[in-house]
Design a protein that fits this description.
alpha/beta; seven-stranded parallel sheet; 7 strands; Rossmann fold
């Protein structure tokens, strides 16, 4: 199987808006068939699919539900073809506003599991549902979405950061197991993006501070982060797996 993006069938989770929509748009721009996954945002997902043309479709599934994910993958196979590529972007309800997030003395385990269920359980469900077709083809690309808060935990997003940390671990262990099947697994970690629904609550002063702190003197956009995701799906990344690429204008290193 060729690794050209134009010959791939790509699932993007949480793709109705924000970064997910930018990722879906980027893959469509390069000629891929794109499955736009959504949980509740049906109207936005349908509208995006229509705007991207006849090689894009919207599919409903809660990634936390393994049966729903299996059903979605079967529907995608019937309409667009067997998925070759998965981008796990879905995010449970969250607002990037540090002043509104619980600190450790207020944090509950339910806060943690809410994030873990979407980030980690969702990734596991997607890997299990798409692995057979990828293994049969001898080709697969899985890209997870992380955060630069691993390196720069400047806000009390304890639940979100912990879940993404666990997702990075799963990304690397999955890369080790799936590599012999021709499947690569990598992570793209953005910083605060300007602007998505999740970051719309971020004060403008925070955006300005981040921009002033980066070598590029700007806040990364969803479109810029999306292009980095394309790299991991492209032929140029065919020898890269288990990696975490930070895309934040150089705010953090490593």
């Amino acid at each position: 199987m060729t690794s050209a993006i134009s010959e791939q069938t790509v699932i993007v989770t949480g793709a109705a808006r924000g970064l997910g929509a930018a990722i879906a748009t980027a893959f469509a721009r390069e000629g891929a068939k794109v499955a736009i996954n959504y949980r509740n945002s049906r109207a936005e997902a349908k509208s995006l699919a229509e705007s991207l043309g006849d090689r894009a479709r919207a599919f409903q599934a809660d990634v936390r539900d393994p049966d729903a994910v299996q059903r979605m993958v079967a529907e995608i196979e019937d309409t667009l073809g067997a998925p070759t590529t998965v981008v796990h972007n879905a995010l449970t309800d969250f607002s990037f506003n540090g002043d509104a997030r619980p600190k450790l003395d207020q944090l509950t385990w339910e806060n943690m599991t809410s994030q873990l269920d979407t980030a980690v359980k969702g990734a596991l469900n997607l890997i299990q549902a798409t692995r057979p077709a990828m293994a049969s083809a001898g080709f697969g690309r899985i890209v997870t979405i992380g955060t630069n808060l691993f390196q720069n935990p400047v806000v009390p997003y304890h639940d979100y950061t912990a879940a993404k940390g666990a997702l990075l671990s799963l990304t690397r262990t999955a890369a080790a197991e799936l590599g012999p099947l021709g499947i690569t697994v990598n992570m793209v970690s953005g910083g605060l993006l300007r602007t998505t629904a999740a970051s719309s609550a971020t004060p403008e002063a925070v955006f300005d501070l981040i921009a002033a702190s980066t070598p590029l003197r700007q806040v990364t956009t969803p479109e810029e982060a999306a292009d980095a995701v394309l790299f991991f799906a492209s032929p140029w990344a065919r020898a890269v797996t288990g990696q975490n690429l930070i895309v934040d204008g150089g705010l953090v290193f490593g």
